[in-house]
Amino acid sequence: MITYEYPFNERIRTLLRLEDLYEKFVFFLHQEHPQHHHVALSTIFEMLEVAGRADLKSDLLQELERQKQTLLGFKANPNVLSERLDAVLADIDRSSAALISTQGKTGQNVRDNEWLMSIRGRTIIPGGACEFDLPSYYAWQHRSPQQRYDDISSWFAPLAPLFDAIGLVLRLLRESGKTTTMIAQAGSFQQMLQGKIYQMLRLTIDESLGAIPEMSANKYMLWVRFTLQDGDMKPKPFESDIPFELTLCNF
User: Could you please report the per-residue DSSP string of 193-219?
Assistant: First the structure.
């Protein structure tokens, strides 16, 4: 099974982009080749580019507080597992406290590092990080894998609370939805939303079908059209009925 996600607004779109960057960063950070660590460092620069477009810290703190108050309302509900509820509330408190403790603008420690900014300025140029452009960076890449790992980890550390909060908010959002099995007749599916506001949809489909969903939505209607890729990867309509699981998520 493969799951596709579609954000309904710019705020969730930004969080999903940052989550994707973080997953790439973690993967390349834990490799040992200098080229892998180059990608990890470049990914930090991409994170700053995306995160700098919005006041994420205050937005995440407000959302975590809102989720906390909502969950506290379930304390007296006998149908709720108190242990699981307490664990989620503890996660929210921990994440909020860590986020509050961060100082300054997101990634300011990286922006204040002239050496890192010189690398950032060159990496946006195709082939701009060659050894003759950045000899000091080339020398750094020849340090031991552990030294490079420690350096990148220290540069990322002030960003960690932000990404912990992003992961928690998206986890709560994904767990908020109810999953329903649907059928796309002749590869097409529409559903009226009747003005109800959602934050994100999740669509799960059998990977072996080879069908790729193209999704669009507004507050009135959700539309999914399934396609296939031919030999040159050009999409073409999927004309058979397709079963899939649909989850509409909202805080």
Answer: -TT---SEEEEEE-GGG--EEEEEE-S
Question: What angle is formed at CA 199 by the lines to CA 194 and CA 200, rounded to 5 degrees?
Answer: 100
**Among candidate residues 91, 107, 85, the one with its CA nearest the CA of residue 25:** 107
- Reported residue count of the chain is 251
Q: Are strands 178-184 and 200-205 parallel, antiparallel or unpaired?
A: unpaired
Q: What is the pLDDT of residues 43-93, one digit of tens each?
A: 999 999 888 765 788 889 988 998 888 888 777 677 767 788 888 888 898
Q: Are strands 221-229 and 212-217 parallel, antiparallel or unpaired?
A: antiparallel
Residue type, 167: G
Give the number of other Cβ atoms within 10 Å of residue 123's Cβ. 19
